[in-house]
Amino acid sequence: MDREIDVIIAEDSPDAQDIILSFIKPLEDFKVIGVVDNGESLLELNLNKKPQLIIADINMPKLNGIEAITSCVKVNKDLKFIFTTAHDEYAVKAFELSAVDYVMKPIKKERLYVALEKVKNLINAKDQDAEEQKKILTIKMDRISYFIPFDNIIFIEKANRKTVIHTDEQNFETNETLDSIHNRLDSHFFRTHRSFIANLHHISHIILEGETYLAHFRNYSHYAHVSKLRINELYKEISYNE
C-alpha cells in the first residue's frame, strides 16, 4: 500500500473510542485523522477532511450513524464506511447503504481487522483501476484525437519537424515535442537519445555498429539510436524492469 487510508471514528462512547484507536494505531496502512461523538460533528468533519473511511456507531446522538453516513456519502462519493453497533436489527439498512462491513459490539480486534482488510482491498483495487486508466497516451493529429495504450508503443522518435510514435499496429505523427510526450509516460520508457524514447519492455537486443548503438525491438524492423552517454544507464534500466 503506497498511501495511508485516512480514518474518522464516530463513536459517542469514550471507552469504545479508545478501543478502536488502540486497534488501529499499530496498523501502518491506516491513520486516524479525527474522532467525533455525534452525527452532526461527523458531517462537519467529513466535509472538511474528506476521509477515505469512517467507522461509525449507529446509535449516536443528534444524528444516528445511518443518517449521518447517508449525508456524508453525498459530498464524499468514494467514502468507505464500517458500522459498529450492539444491536443487529440495523444490519439490512447498513448494507443497503453499501457499508463495507457491520461489526457487532463489543468490538474484537480480529473482527475489526477483517473489516479493515476489506476496506484496504477495495481502495487498492480502485487505485489500480485508476492507474491502468491513466496508461493511455492521447495525441492529436489534425482534427482527430487518438488514444494509444502505453503497452502498444514500441518507441518514439523525432523525425524532421514531427514526432513519430511507433506502435505494433501503426505509426502516429504529431506536432508535439518529444519532451512533452516523455513527461506523460511512465518509468517503462527511457530516453535513449535526444531524438528517441524507447519502451524498455519491447527492446529485444542492442547492437554496436561502428561507434553507434542501436536498440532493436521484438517483431519490429525499425530501431532506435542510443547515445553513448546513456548506454550504461539503459542496460541498468532494462535489468531493473525485467
Describe, in plain words, how this protein is organized in 3D:
The strands form four sheets. This protein has a five-stranded parallel sheet, sandwiched between helices. Helix 3 (about 65-75) links the parallel strand 3 and strand 4 (about 80-85). It contains seven helices and 15 strands. About 35% of the residues lie in helices and about 35% in strands. The radius of gyration is 26 Å and the shape is elongated. It has about 240 residues and is of the alpha/beta class. The model has no long low-confidence stretch (mean pLDDT about 90). Helix 2 runs parallel beside helix 3 (about 65-75). It has helices spanning about 15-25, 40-50, 65-75, 90-95, 110-135, 180, 230-240, and strands at about 5-10, 30-35, 55, 80-85, 100-105, 135-140, 145-150, 155-160, 160-165, 170-175, 190-195, 195-200, 205-210, 210-215, 220-225.
What percentage of amino acids are in beta strands? 35-45%
Strand order, biggest sheet? 2-1-3-4-5
Summing up helix and strand content along with how strands pair, one would put the structural category as alpha/beta
Instruction: Report mean pLDDT, rounded to a whole number.
Output: 91
* Outline: elongated
Our Rg estimate from Cα atoms comes to 26 Å
